[in-house]
Amino acid sequence: MVYQKHSLKSTLLLLLAYFFQLINAPTAWSNTADPVSIKTQVDITQPTLGDILTYSIRVNHDSDIVIHTPEYVIPEGFEKVGYGKKNPRKVNNQTAQEFWLKLRVDKTGLLTIPAMPLGFDAPDQNNQIVKGKIMTTEVNVDVQSLLQLEGNVSDIKDIKPIVYIKAPWIHYIWKALGVLCFLALAYFIWKNWQKKSDLKPESLTLLTAEQKALKELRELESREFMKLGRIRDHFFELSEIFRRYMENRYRFPAQEWTTEEIISHFKGFSGLNEKQKLQARNILTESDKVKFAKAEVETNYDPIEPVIHFIKEATPPIQQKPN
Q: Which pTM value belongs to this model?
């Protein structure tokens, strides 16, 4: 009797130990991971019109399998914005890789992103590369209308019919009269300006180059820039008058040329003798020294006299007409 009790007790202990081993060893009942597994999802399942959602394809595969980029099929109602992939990472002795596709929603209602093929290369038992494909699952997206999200849309009314309004002819007539008055005023001002410009003294238009230069020199002398200490202003005006005279008298662009260019032009110029060329060169160089080098000038020195002397000496004699 004692032996039977002891045998029963031993049997119970063995059963408890075996059951405990089963509880603490679940891996013995679990299946090994698939060589390639795939999962698809979107970050927004109920977007609104114009939203940009991200469609993701997550692939877990063995390290000796190479996954290709998915062949994306853009369904109606979506617009592709961009696509790419994330860096692969290790998860449970496998490689996890994620591809993403950004889509803009262009249509309301229930839209479906269809299943897409995903290609891969895997070795067989003989280490030969075998091409394979795995399909993604469909993903449904329920695009919401902004009007529906706001709830009550009873305040939105249809467009009213066209109302015909008579043209405001009186308003147009007043505008046209205003434009005509403005044009008449502009024409009157223009005509008066032309009359004033045509009334220039005939003597000014008939002045010779020498007469114009001497008149401008007298006006410059009346300003008394030298007495006021405005030496550079005086020489600037004097140089412009002399250059303008030479341009009008001898027909070369003296106002645009530098002093060096004018002196170079004198070498082959027959309109002046050597003495006159030397005088003109002295007038131009002395003016440049004061204008640009700020050379000092004696207060009792009158720079206008050499210019007047040059102009009078270069003036051609007046020929009398025979009776």
A: 0.39
